[in-house]
Amino acid sequence: MGTKITVGLFWVAALAALPLTATAAEAPASAQAAVLKGACGACHTIPGIPGANGKVGPDLGKIGAAAATRREGLDARAYLRQSILEPNAFIAPSCPSGPCPPGVMLQSFGQALAPDELEAIVGYLATLGTGRALAAGPAPPSRLPSALPPESRVRPYAAVSAAAPKAAEVALGKALFFDTRLSGNRSRACASCHQPARAWTEGTAVSQGYPETAYFRNTPTLLNVVHRERLFWDGRLDAADLPTLVRDHLTEAHFMNMDGRLAAERLKQVPAYVERFQEVYGQ
To answer: Per-residue pLDDT tens for 84-126?
Structure first.
């Protein structure tokens, strides 16, 4: 089992992700940054914004089509802008528990945004539910690569004790490492924190946990992890027990917040994964 889980770490010189997830196209980076700064996603579900899956306020998936009808005399963008800037404005006519009370929008929200940040949010929300909305992203490939990734064809500086994995097993590990299906709200992958371009770290003093909340430690590199004796900054886990390490990172609420049973079901829904798991592990 340890060898199987380790395969995703054998190619840690890679710098590119595989486009495996068929989700809605992401919002422009400017809109994502503004939404994160204002914490809109803490209350609202906003398609195209990773991590914005709030349950307190309404789903804004079609707000662009509905906004112009919410207040007479205002077009969609003007209504959205006013709803954000006015403390007592609200986007939906009702809240989950009934009529929305005054001040349902945070009074400091609009004040925290620069004019260009406000316009980035308004511009994106105005497209949702309309013909101008961003199209869905690419469909998953019908097959996963089975060849050994080019970056794995290197000679290690020191012998690796584990048996060499199959090429298809390494390719499968790479695909899983970049797949956001393995997080609770499909917004994070292993590579979200262990980023190839940053030496497999996050490059920050404190890492972003799930969902986009500051953690109390930073992300250690995965380079040469196969030669370690202990894992985690405090060394609390034996490095021979990589399956436990991977399971903890998938299921812990502050890492990827994923139910193991749901992870398996999600992968079963992708024919390319079913085929590759059958080829590599026979099940």
So the answer is: 887 666 555 555 566 666 655 655 667 778 888 889 999 999 9
pTM as predicted: 0.55
**Sign of the CA dihedral with 244 first, then 247, 252, and 255 last:** positive
Quick one: which of 62, 64, 74, 61 has its CA closest to 123?
Answer: 64
Contact 254, 215 (CB under 8 A): yes
Nearest by Cα to 202 from 187, 220, 216: 220
Sign of CA dihedral 233, 237, 241, 242: negative
Both structure tokens of 104: 């349902």
Ranges of the chain whose pLDDT falls below 70: 1-25, 55-56, 87-109, 131-142, 161, 211-212
pLDDT, residue 28, reads 85
Integer CA distances (angstroms), 146 to 19, 109, 166, 204, 279, in order: 15, 48, 9, 34, 10
Q: Closest by alpha carbon to 188, among 151, 206, 168, 213?
A: 213
